[in-house]
Amino acid sequence: MTTSVKLNKIKLNKIKKEKILTENDLLKFEIAEELGLTDKVRATGWKSLTARESGKIGGIMNRRIKEKQKKMNPFEKRERA
Are 20 and 29 in contact (CB under 8 A)? Predict the structure, then answer.
């Protein structure tokens, strides 16, 4: 490796911004906890989840978000695209 590549790699590893958790992030953590995946996520990150595990989390998130929207606007009919 060249020196510039090493320096860039070192800088990228050191610079990690703290992310402000959104409502969706909190929901994702909640669902991961329900599925027993929080230890895996904390140890190795979200990238360590299998496609099946990620899909399960996403599907449950989608269902809950829709249910929440339905509770907020129960009389609103939605048009399908």
Answer: no
pLDDT digits (tens, 9 = 90+) for 21-66: 899 999 999 999 999 999 999 999 999 999 999 999 999 999 999 9
Overall pTM > 0.70 = no
**Cβ-contact 44, 32 below 8 angstroms:** no
> If we measure between CA atoms, which residue out of 71, 44, 43, 40 comes closest to residue 57?
40
Using an 8 Å Cβ cutoff, are 25 and 47 in contact? no
Cβ neighbours of residue 68 closer than 8 Å, sequence gap 6 or more = none
For the chain, what's the residue count? 81
Closest by CA to 65, choosing from 19, 28, 20, 21, is 28
Q: Give the whole-angstrom CA distance, residue 72 versus residue 66.
A: 10
